[in-house]
Batch of 3 targets.
Target 1
Amino acid sequence: MSDPIKRDGLRREFWTRVPMHKMTEAEWEALCDGCGKCCLNKLEDADTGEVALTRVACRLLDDATCRCTQYDIRHQFVPDCIRLTPGTIAKHMYWLPRTCAYRLVYEGRDLFHWHPLISGDSQTVHDAGVSVQDLTVSEFETPEDEWEDHIIEEPL
C-alpha cells in the first residue's frame, strides 16, 4: 500500500523512505531548508578543486528570506544557475553546503533538528544561525576580483 499524501502534498517523513528519483516535485522542493547557501557565489581552486564559499550573493537572492526572488524563472536572469535534480545531484555534490538536505539525504544521513521538515517551522533555519540571513553582499556592488576578500566559513 502506498503512503497517503498529506494536504501539503508530502508523504510522512518521505526523505527517510523515498528514493530521491521517486520523490514528487513537492517533496523534492520541500527538501530545501531555505538557508540560501547555495545562492552564494563560490570560488573554486583550479589546482585542488577546493570550493570556497563567499558572502557574495547571487543577484536574485533575497538576503532577508534567503530565497530566490525569481525561482521559477531564474534561468532567464542567471542562465548558469544550477538546476539540482535527482539526476544531477551527484555531479554537483562538491559545491553543496555540508548542511544541505539534498546532500544529507543523498548521503543517507539525517536532517538537522532545525530543518523545517523536522521542526515544522521555516524560521528555525535562521534561528539556528545556519542560514545566510543578513550576511551577504551584492554581486553587483562587489567586483569579482574582490570576492576572495569575502570568503567565509560555512555557517553551521
Target 2
Amino acid sequence: MTLLTKQSKKQISLKQKVANGALAGILLTSLGVAAPMIAMTQSATAAPADNLIAAKRLNTLLTNTKSMTANFTQTTKGANSGTFSGSMSVQRPNSFRWETKSPSEQLIIANGSSMWVYDKDLEQATKQNVDSQVGNTPALLLSGDPSKIDQSFKITQPYDNKNYYVLYPKSDNASFKSLSMSFSGGKPVMMVLNDTLGQTTSIKFSSIKMNPSISSSQFKFTPPKGVDVINQ
C-alpha cells in the first residue's frame, strides 16, 4: 500500500475543496449542471413537460424529502478532476452535512445561517454566512424551501414520464450553468452540475434513507483545538 505524504494529502485536499465548490460555502463558486447519464437512455422523441407542471412535480418530490441520509460518490471532470466518496445528511429547514472520507477527509456543515468547511489534512476551518435561498446554494436544494425554487430557477422536465429535472438559474450572476436531479422511487439518486469554468460534477447517492430522525448535533460544528479558523 502506498502511503500519501503530507504534501500530497494537502494537494488532494485543495483539489477536493474546489471539487466540492457547488455544494457549500467555498463550494459556492464552482458548481453547475449537465444532463446526467440517465438522460442519454431516454427516447429522443419523448415529450418534455410544461415548465409549470415540471416545477410542481419537483416541488412535490422535494417537499416529501423532509430529511435524508445517504452515501455518495462524487466525480469531477475538468481542470480539477477527481473522485471522492463519503456520507451526507440533510434536514429541513436548511440543515446540511457533507462528509468526504476518501481519499482525504473534509467536513461541510450548514445550518441555515452559517456554513463550516473543515479540512482535517490542512488543519483549517472556514466559516461563511449562508443565504438560505436555494438560488445561492445549489447544495441546499434538498434542505431549503421547495416553494421558493421556481423563484431562483427555470425548472424543466425533458421527459414527461421520467423524474429527471434540469434547473437553470435565473440570476445572471450565478456561478453555475445548470443543475440536474434524477429521482427513482421518490428518492433523489443523482445530481449533475456544470460550472461556468466548464467542469462537470456528478454525484451519485446510495444506501438512501428517506425521512429518518437525525440528531441536531449532526449539524453543529466546533473547530478542534489548534485548527486555523478563517471567517469569510
Target 3
Amino acid sequence: MNNPETNLEAQLRSLAKTAYPFHMPGHKRRLSPAPDLPVAWDFTEVEGADDLHHAEGILLEAMRRTALCFHAERTWYLVGGSTVGNLAAVRACSHRNGEIIAARNCHKSVYHAIELSNLTVHWLVPAWDADWGIFGSIRPEDVEAALSAHPQSSCVVLTSPTYEGVVSDIGAIAKICHAHGVPLVVDEAHGAHFGLFAEGGFPKGSITLGADLVVQSAHKTLPSLTQTALLHANPGLVSPKEVERQLDVFETSSPSYPLMASLDGCTRLLQTKGPALFAAWGKRLSHLDEKAAGLAHLEVLCHGRDTLENHPAFFGFDRSKVLLRAADPAVSGGALAGVLRERYHLESEMHLGRNVLLMTSCADTDEGFALLENALFDLETKAQGNSDKKAPALQEAPDLSGEAVCPIGEALDAPFEEVPEKAAAGRICAEYVFPYPPGIPVLVPGERIQEEDLLRLASYAKSGSTVWHSSGSGAGRIRVLAPKQD
C-alpha cells in the first residue's frame, strides 16, 4: 500500500518517459506557462494513464487506496470540487420532475441539482442557535416527519458539518431514511477529516455512520489542491453505475492528472503520517481552548469557556472550526475580519453577520496558532478599556417556511422583470440571492419574497458580507416573475 511505485505521481512520471507526446496537452510536458507547474507529468488519457470516467488501471488503483483510507465501499475522485459531487449525487438519487427532501441550509450546488431535474423539494429547517445567529443540526424527528408526510420523496439531502462546524446525528438519520427505503446524501464538504483517526478528537464520518453517498472537499481541511474532492458510497440503495453516469454528465472529460495525483498523495500522507499530524492538530486546538478561556471581550464558539452543552440546537461540533466574534454586538464580522487582516496579517475564511470563521487543518503550525492566540489577546487587552461590555443580542430564527409557488426550475424559465428591492416583498423570486461565502440561498426562485428576507440580506450587506444575485441584477434590484406569472 505504501510502496512508492504505487503512488500515482510516480506512475505518471514513469509513463512520461516511454514515448514522445504527439497528443494533448499542448505544453508537451516541457514548456511550462508558469514556474513550478507540474507539466512533466500532466497527462491526457493515453495508453497506461487510465481514464477517470472508465477507470480500469492506475486511477482505479488510486481510488481503491483512498476508499480504504476513508472506510468507504467505493470512492470516486472529483476534480470539480464538492459541487460536482453534489450535482451527481442528487441526480443519481432522484427522478426528473420527482420529489426530494433537503435541508434548507444546503449549498447552492444542491439547489442547482434540484433546478436541473425540476424537482419538488420538501425543506427540512435546521434548529437555530439564537445566540450566535447560525443554523444548528437537522433533527432526526423532522426527517421522520418529512418522510412520513412525503412518501414519494426519492432521497434525503443534508449538510453536515455546516460551514460553522455544526454536526447532525447522521447515524440516527441514516437509520430513519433506510427504514423508509430511501438513500441519505450528505454534503460533508467541510468534514473530509472526520472519522479518519482517533487522534484530534473529531466526529465520526458520515460514511461510517451509514449515509449512502457522502461528498467531501479534500482541499478544505486536508492537504490537497484546490478543486479536489471525493464522493464516497455505501452499497445498497444507490446504483454505482448511475453515479458514474451523472459524473460523466457534470465532470470534465479531461480531468487534471495533477489534481488526481494530489488526492492520491493526500491519501498516502494520511496513511503514513496521519495519526501524528492529527495528534499535533488536536494538541494545538486544545491549547487554543485553554487560551480562549481567558477571553472576556471576544467569544469563540464551542471553545474556551463555551461548550457544546450551551447549544441545545447542536448535536455535535467540529472543533477544527474557530468561529469568532466580538462580545459587543455593535462590532460586525466584516470589521473584525478587517482588523485581523490589516493589523495581525491573519486572513479569515469567511465573515457573516457578527461572526468570523477561521479554518484550521493538520497542515497548520505551532507558529501559526501562536500568531492567532497573540492576536486574540492583543485585541482582548485593547478592549478592556471598555468597561460597559454589552450583552450579545439574541438573533431570531429566520422564517424559512416561505411559500413555494412553483418549482425552482419552472421559476427560472418563466418570464421575469427586475424591480427595486423595496418593491420585491410579496413577489415571486426568479433568481437566487445569497451571501457568499457560505453560498446558502436566502431567496430561492419560485418562493414568495418576504419582508424579513430583504431585511436579512440588508443586514448581511451592512456587516460587510458580499451578497450575490445569480442573475447579476444586484445594485438594489431583484429579479421576480412577471406580473402575469406572479
